[in-house]
Amino acid sequence: MSLPPLNERAQQLLKALIERYISEGVPVGSRTLSQATPFSLSPATIRNVMADLEMMGLIHAPHTSAGRVPTIQGYRLFINQLLTMRNLDEAQVDFLSGELRQASSSRQQLIETASQLLSHLTRYAGLVTLPRREHARLTQIEFVPLSGRRVLAILVMDDGEVQNRVLPVSRDYSSSELRKYSALLSEQLAGQEAARVREALLAEMDKVRSDLNTLMLEAIQLTEQALDAATPEPDLVISGQSNLVGLEDMGNLARMKRLFEAFETKRDILHLLDQSERAEGVQIFIGGESGYDPFEGCSLITAPYREQGRVVGYLGVIGPTRMPYDRVIPLVDITARLLGAAMSPGLETEG
Fold first, then answer.
1. 94-100: long-range contacts at Cβ-Cβ below 8 A with a sequence spacing of 24 or more?
2. Spacing of C-alpha 229 from chain mean position
3. What is the pTM of this model?
4. Which residue has the higher pLDDT, 265 or 231?
5. Hey, what domains does the chain have and what are their CATH numbers?
6. Confidence at 349, pLDDT banded by 50, 70, 90
């Protein structure tokens, strides 16, 4: 979207209007602005500038009062060009870092703690996607016979995660057979990225078919079945949804219901986070910019977090469009950095 150029006076007035509206939550009039800007301007002059800003689509009158509030376009120009970020104080950073270090014994606990911290510190909803699995490497495969023509497949990853799959099979397998399969496949596939295992299996399957190697073929077919037992799509941990209930800026009950349905299904939020993959750093979606109806009236601020230097997930905050962006944006950014540091012990966060 192309944003209109503004002279310095219009910029200062728009900045003052949005900051006052974010702070107080009521439409801002010309008399209020005359006291909030460095210019010595009469209320009449300010009204003329406000009329220009309204014609540009940057502010509007929510009702018949003399006050104005920012539009989505106004917020966007404010964030892109006029926003002055507020640095987090050292105590806040130490608190975040300490809480994440305490939770670092478990990846799941780390994710849940990061989501809860974002919610606690912003008083909005905090969200964190679970780390992607495509870069995890396979270290071991084990097959264990179960009763009723079933086999337990155990896949061990290099980050310590263990995935178990119960597989229905067409015949009974002995323990010795399955041990041989486990040894063959662990030798062939150990060290492969999880996302590449299927490719390696297909290549090996083509090779052994030509050699009529029944032992290896059955082992590969079992592993293929274990992979088909499906690693779930990247999931999402959301904390503090109740913080949004009752906020005037979140709209009516019908809109809140759609938003909470989105929290429940998580699909729309995950799709929206996927858009962040195409850009580096903090991303901000304001209201209708997201393209998803449940987020009308909301802002979503996201940032990627890294493990061993690779982006493995995203975290963020969902709140009203009238949020203190100068405080929330740096908070999301530093939390992403600290979460990545907690997941990558021994690596320093970038400043």
1. 96/121, 96/334, 96/335, 96/338, 97/338, 97/341, 100/338, 100/339, 100/341, 100/342
2. 26
3. 0.72
4. 265
5. 8-82 (1.10.10.10), 90-132+234-343 (3.30.450.40), 138-228 (3.30.390)
6. very low
